[in-house]
Specification:
By secondary structure, this protein is α+β, with helices and mostly antiparallel strands. It starts with a helix and ends with a helix. It has two domains: about 170 residues, no CATH class; about 160 residues, no CATH class. Helix 2 packs antiparallel against helix 12.
């Protein structure tokens, strides 16, 4: 049967190629959009956790996507946090989203930040010592071809790069908290606090103490941040559902049209097969196998297109992270195959129900 299926597809190369490309575009669309959206979320979580600390304190109405928040908590709350039993240190951070460059900058207090974070390491230079100095991570430095002592123009002001630190901690650009507060128009305010618990005190005990003291705030365990972001990010579930639906519909419609038109052209051929004793089941299997082969070829081409597109995106925008999980690498082709199979089902049943006598007389 496989040889017959392959022969039928090769007899109509244009339609077969168009169908394969359409399925591939559906797979690539799903994987590229998910790769970019997931990449942003996963990268945000990993760099946030890289700041250190066991808990994050935010206003009750704050979003887990820091770009949506502004400075609303007084910095003096930091002293209150450090007085809570079991807290080792806390540091305020002000987040600012740069729309023109599509990334976050963090304003940090160097002294308290150092007490919470112990993994910040520099490959060049060191911490800032003046209000117009910044430190940047290695990805940002490489993408902008920046080094220490180079000027950096952001937020309508010119800064000097004091140091380059290894990627994975906070935002791409870190600057003095007081400077960002001034530029943001939020003096003495922070977006959130990162809190480090004492090693000898159980985390649950510290969490309960903080929760009791700041009952009107949002308190997040840093270890649970990724799950919370994936579950509570605005419209993320709706977005994922929409992308899967679009991918399935593309496969469904393309295979439906391709198989339906193919069956119309092959009416006499199907009549000959049925007159030779081919059963309805055989005819259905024949059509479904053709659609399956088209879908598999489309899936393979879809992965190639995805790889090419993502390489172009990363080359053009080095700071844009991309993450495609194993789950979606499996789900995308499965959805394409399911859509293609459903699309071929009606034409296959129609072909199987043909009257062989009428089919042989079809012009």
């Amino acid at each position: 049967m496989f040889r017959l299926v392959l022969t039928n597809l090769l007899q109509r190369p244009t339609r077969t190629c168009v169908s394969v490309i359409a399925v591939a575009l559906g797979v690539a669309l799903l994987l590229v959009t998910l790769g970019l959206s997931y990449g942003q979320l996963v990268d945000l979580v990993e760099r946030t956790q890289g700041i250190g600390g066991d808990f994050i304190l935010q206003p009750s109405d704050a979003s887990l996507i820091f770009a949506l928040n502004s400075g609303t908590i007084p910095v003096r709350v930091n002293k209150v946090i450090e007085e809570v039993d079991g807290v080792e240190a806390a540091t305020p951070i002000l987040a600012k989203f740069l729309g023109d460059q599509f990334h976050l900058v963090f304003g940090i207090d160097p002294e308290s930040f150092e007490r919470v974070n112990s993994s910040l390491s520099f490959v060049e230079g060191g911490r800032f010592s003046g209000p117009r100095e910044v430190i940047i991570d290695t990805i940002y430095a490489n993408s902008r071809k920046l080094a220490t002592e180079d000027p950096l123009h952001i937020l309508g002001n010119q800064f000097t790069v004091a140091g380059v630190f290894r990627q994975g901690i906070g935002a791409r650009v870190l600057l003095p908290l007081t400077t960002l507060q001034e530029l943001n128009g939020t003096p003495d305010k922070a977006t959130m606090f990162f809190i480090r618990a004492k090693e000898e005190v159980p985390l649950e005990q510290v969490y309960d103490s903080l929760k009791e003291r700041f009952e009107n705030y949002k308190l997040i365990k840093a270890a649970e941040l990724q799950g919370l972001v994936m579950e509570n990010t605005p419209v993320i579930k709706e977005f994922l559902s929409a992308m899967v639906f679009i991918s399935v519909i593309i496969s469904f419609l393309i295979i439906l049209l391709a198989m339906y038109s193919t069956i119309t052209e092959r009416t006499r051929e199907i009549g000959i097969l049925k007159s030779m004793g081919a059963s309805r089941t055989y005819i259905i299997r024949l059509i479904l196998n053709e659609s399956l082969l088209i879908c598999l070829a489309g899936v393979g081409l879809g992965f190639v297109l995805t790889s090419v597109v993502l390489q172009l995106v990363v080359a053009a925008f080095p700071t844009v992270p991309v993450t495609i999980t194993l789950f979606w690498r499996i789900t995308a082709p499965v959805m394409a195959v399911i859509g293609g199979t459903l699309g071929a089902l009606y034409p296959a049943i129609k072909a199987a129900r043909m009257d062989p006598v009428k089919a042989l007389g079809y012009e």
